[in-house]
Amino acid sequence: MALSEISMDPDVLQGVPVVTGTTISVSSIVALVCQGLSEQEIIQRHPELTPADIVACVEFQHAGSR
């Protein structure tokens, strides 16, 4: 996972993990993945994301759940 793709800043969404350079939370992207949305569908909803951003969100969430 590229750590630069995920950031936590108290001034952005009160410090929850977000995709770097956005206000899109990791948990919101993981929720879309869990709902069964494809990578393409997620990017259609959030065109500022890349496929690598989506993977980073899932990996970040998985690493935190251990």
From TrEMBL:
Gene3D superfamilies named among the record's database cross-references: Winged helix-like DNA-binding domain superfamily/Winged helix DNA-binding domain (1.10.10.10)
InterPro entries: DUF433, Homeodomain-like_sf, WH-like_DNA-bd_sf
A family per Pfam: DUF433
Superkingdom classification of source: Bacteria
UniProt name for this protein: Uncharacterized conserved protein, DUF433 family
Organism: Allokutzneria albata
Lineage, uppermost ranks: Bacteria, Bacillati, Actinomycetota, Actinomycetes, Pseudonocardiales
